Amino acid sequence: MNGRETFPADFVWGAATSAYQIEGATEEDGRGESIWDRFASTPKKIADRSDGRIACDHYHLWPKDIQLLEWLGVGAYRFSIAWPRVLPQGRGTINEKGLAFYDALVDGLLEAGIEPFPTLYHWDLPQALEDEGGWGNRETTEAFAEYAEVVTRRLGDRVRHWVTHNEPWCIATLGHEHGHHAPGHKNVGLALKVAHHLLLSHGMALEPIRRNVRDAQVGIVHILSPAEPASENDTDRNAARQFDGLFNRWFLDPLFRGRYPKDAIQDRKEWGHLDSIELPFVHGGDLELISQPLDFLGVNYYSRTVVKAGRDGRPEGVRVVPKEELTDMGWEVYPDGLRTGLKRIHTDYSPPRIFVTENGAAYSAGPDADGRVHDPRRVEYFRGHLAAILQAKNEGVPVDGYFAWSLLDNFEWAMGYEKRFGLFWVDYANQKRLPKDSAHDFKRIVQSGRPHPPAEESHSAQEETT
Ligand code: FCB
To answer: Is residue 7 in a domain?
Structure first.
């Protein structure tokens, strides 16, 4: 490899989680109902019929979870704030106990020398707002700005880094077009409106955040999946262009160029997603708000998408490796897609800084007879992707940090608790956390700054069980 073989000393190392996936305590201390509480309590929505009522009980165990971060040696923690804990009705009355929870968490992190990287919206919309039309209702954007104001007024004196939204693509598409995620709508027209309102609310939240936070570093998180044609023929290449338009450019173009991609608008019109190439939900001034300068872009990466033209003429993902090589989510392990994806973002959009805000793999490996969790495939996953990031850095991409998904096994949305992404194994029967081999390896990566760290020292599993 050309260039450096270690990450620079100021590279930000972290782990990531989100509120609904780990907190539990959904009915405690005045928290309001969220769309995920409602969705999970609806029959047949969650694979293992579970929900987030207890999850990892992080609401009570957070001091222990900070110790896990300290054990890993990371300098940053990406978590999300539950809107319905802070504003149970979505706007108006503030729930002091909800704010106090995050206040204490932030202080605990800072005392441990760990920089908080909160995300304001990781999918748990207050149900009260959904009842008024949710993200399809333009007024929800105002409620989001109010929420951003309330949270940053309280935490902005100590927290510098802020993420507005996590993965607008997933919220719009999985939640409003496919119906796989809360709130479970299946309406592509609604999904497009939702995508726009999410971006708009991001733009509207920037003002209160910057007013309340000195030297604020504000960004948004996009889920990146580079599209590659299944073959070199024109139809597959066109399908890859179409997929890229729907998945990546539909979100990145408004943010960085102040416009929606023309070709993707045209595609959507042809598929009947839009009545005309006018986007009626875009009002004058919206795109200016959306495309205000960002301090960083957060990139979540799990895999690429290999695309062919489907029978209906729309793009379709294809599997290109044997099933056994996929992760438990059915996703291909493809580190080089992270390198090329980062390069492409740098070339086409040039955000001032990039943080890889999520990256990881679901494998079910649990404790063995020796009390250790041997998860060699996750070890390789992290190593491979970090090597790809280092290569991208050496090729000039300003990637300044990496957050492993996830600190803990947790509630993997519609897949429930069966899919495990954690560095730490969670025994849901007693809430014990146990570092997997990948946690030991990640710790050494952080210590050494090397994607392939020096060999491990011996350690006792017993001592490290918390
Ligand atoms: C991302 C989500 C995160 C987690 C991972 C596996 O899309 O942001 O909450 O579910 O996928």
So the answer is: no
